[in-house]
Amino acid sequence: MLALYLRDLRLGIRAGGGALVGILFFLAVVAVIPFGVGPDLNLLARIGPAILWIGALLAGLLGLDRLFQADRDDGALDLMVLNRDRQMLALVVFVKCLAHWTASILPLVVAAPLLGLFMNMSTTGIGATTLTLLFGTPAIAFIGATGAAVAISLPRGGLLVSVLVLPLMIPVLIFGVSASYAAVADPDPFLPPFLLMMALTLFFAVIGPVAAATALRWATD
Amino acid sequence: MRLVAEDLAGERGGETVFSGIGFTLEVGEALVVTGPNGIGKSTLLRTVAGLLPLAAGRLALEGGGDKWSDIASACHYLGHQNAMKTALTVTENLAFWRDFLGEAHLPLADALDMVGLADIGHLPFGYLSTGQRRRIAIARLLVAYRPVWLLDEPTAGLDRASEAQFAELMAAHCEDGGMIVAATHLPLALEKAQQLRMGGA
Lengths: 221, 201
Fold this sequence. Notes:
The complex is a heterodimer of chains A (about 220) and B (about 200).
Chain A: H1 2-14, H2 18-37, H3 41-61, H4 66-73, H5 76-82, H6 89-118, H7 123-136, H8 138-150, H9 158-184, H10 191-217
Chain B: E1 2-12, E2 15-26, E3 30-34, H1 41-49, E4 56-62, H2 71-74, E5 75-78, H3 90-101, H4 108-114, H5 130-143, E6 148-152, H6 160-175, E7 179-183, E8 193-197
Parallel strand pairs in B: 3-7, 3-8, 5-6, 6-7
Antiparallel strand pairs in B: 1-2, 1-4
Helix pairs in contact in B: 3-5, 4-5
């Protein structure tokens, strides 16, 4: 399993540079918001966490459709399905999600504080948003895996995957953003929405790989 | 250990591709599947591997014990694709499959040597020619051990010398107690190779 993680990580970093594309997209989304909204610094600070979350969410969806398609195209998926007695398929999916998260989504989390400055956010706000992104974004990979597995045989499945996955991401987005707000707006408690978001991530970490593995098992036609 | 197939039928997209196929393979035996294009050789191999559902018939690996309990876990499948990543080096690719598949067999260097490509382990897989890629895919069969080899046109793209080399590898595998089901036009240097001719007469 470690071998699979390292392989996917190498591929993510070496081939095509998915991480860089994601960061550039994230940057583009966040950077145009101040131009659209106008120079109202208070407003920017207020919508900052939401914009960062939406930007990270959309950037995280990029490249998700290739999660299994690349392995299907070169025949590696067949071998993974055949080897399911030794390496459980759901676990294979889980590891692939982790590798995808590390290579493509973690860089977004790292870039988030910098982009938070663009939005005139306070230090606490930036810290809270980054923290919620760190623990909330794995859910993108896990839910996205299900979408990617279902749409695996479609040559242009990218948009379909995004449309399939976005509705499921909304609860994570809601709790992630409300936890980030709660860190700055004083009376609201930070911990309850944060814990709920963590619970969602854990929930999807279990459901997502199992569902994706089921879809992959019958996608070898 | 015995690989038994009785009265197999396979279908793709609801249409029956072949039916009434049966064979029995004992340890050390090989089966060569021949037939015109489109007759269902690849479908048969994928069905035997368990990648496609069985439309009818019975398929079993008998006497494999706990270790080789079913065909999927006891087989190497070499399809039309090589299952290698072009961005990784040859050694990285093979090391991944050895670790992922388990049952490590030959060391990487030896496996590369067996396919005659001992000195290209450091090159990215994408730099290789079609024939070289195929030979690396064949080396994958050697780095992890599986008793049953399911080979779909294994020699596509190979030159004469590599074909002969691969025929030797297949013979050696059968002598070691392996089994081979191959869709190939290459004559196998095996006394016990059975022939299965699909379609036509």
